[in-house]
Design goal:
Blueprint (H helix, E strand, L loop, with lengths): L14 H4 L11 H36 L6 H5 L1 H20 L5 H23 L3 H11 L3 H29 L4 H21 L12 H11 L6 H9 L2 H17 L1
Length: 254
């Protein structure tokens, strides 16, 4: 059985490591006391981060549930979209803590990733039926349907790589808060359109993108104006490039 490697943003300490040693033992020595205080000083911040992450995830899940999802397929996409928000948040935070790779190298690797994903997706579309059936039996999945799903995932991955290039260029402008708000707005736009099948506009009604984005910002303790971020989104290079593609996808589903 294969095991999934946990991301640093999704690691939960086991109880034996997250336990705070609050009370001294009756026979505690000075060395023991110093060791206990040192342990607590290391563990307390990690426990607090874990607690905040759980609270964020619950808030993001409630925000998506508030969109009045009326089909199982949309509801099943909530868990991976929670991970998308977490990854976007941590990546944006990392940008200010670590020296970024050269822009040319990032662009080169993202372009390569997009090309390989899109190329494989195209290859799957013309794969021989016998190959699909053999692969399906070996993988324990329904051949044609599984290949179609894999092709969709690869296409979406290619789109995401291209979106990352657009988002990275946008994030280089302005302050860190602006870059974080931009990245989270882009992620929210993708999630909202995919879950609801609705186009993004500036409505502030219940169930609108404005309301959804406000809940996402609140979950991550962010203070930017949702109205301003939506206005920036709709005039951004990201939306000019990917907005029509998203809208066309929605119309095809409809």
């Amino acid at each position: 059985m294969s095991s999934k490697t946990p991301r640093s943003s999704d690691v939960v300490l086991p109880p034996s490591l997250s336990h705070i040693r609050s009370a001294p033992a009756p026979d505690e020595t000075e060395q023991d006391r110093l060791s206990r205080e040192h342990w607590n000083a290391r563990i307390e911040p990690m426990n607090e981060l874990e607690k905040k992450q759980r609270e964020r995830k619950r808030a993001v899940e409630k925000a998506m549930q508030s969109l009045l999802l009326d089909n199982d397929e949309a509801r099943s996409r909530i868990p991976p979209f929670i991970s998308l928000f977490e990854s976007t948040y941590y990546d944006a935070q990392r940008d200010v803590r670590e020296r970024p790779a050269p822009s040319a190298e990032v662009k080169k690797q993202l372009s390569s990733l997009a090309g390989k994903c899109r190329g494989l997706a195209e290859d799957l579309k013309v794969m021989d039926r016998d190959v699909i059936q053999e692969w399906g039996r070996a993988a324990g999945v329904g051949g044609p349907i599984a290949v179609w799903q894999l092709s969709e995932v690869l296409t979406e991955s290619a789109d995401a790589a291209e979106q990352a290039m657009a988002g990275r260029r946008a994030s280089k402008k302005g302050r860190h808060g602006d870059a974080l708000a931009t990245a989270m707005t882009h992620a929210a736009a993708i999630v909202y359109t995919q879950l609801t099948g609705e186009e993004i506009n500036r409505s502030t009604n219940r169930g609108s993108f404005h309301a959804f984005l406000g809940k996402i910002f609140k979950a991550y303790d962010m203070k930017p104006s949702a109205e301003h971020c939506i206005r920036e989104l709709m005039s951004s290079e990201f939306w000019r490039k990917f907005g029509p593609r998203i809208i066309n996808s929605l119309h095809k589903k409809g």
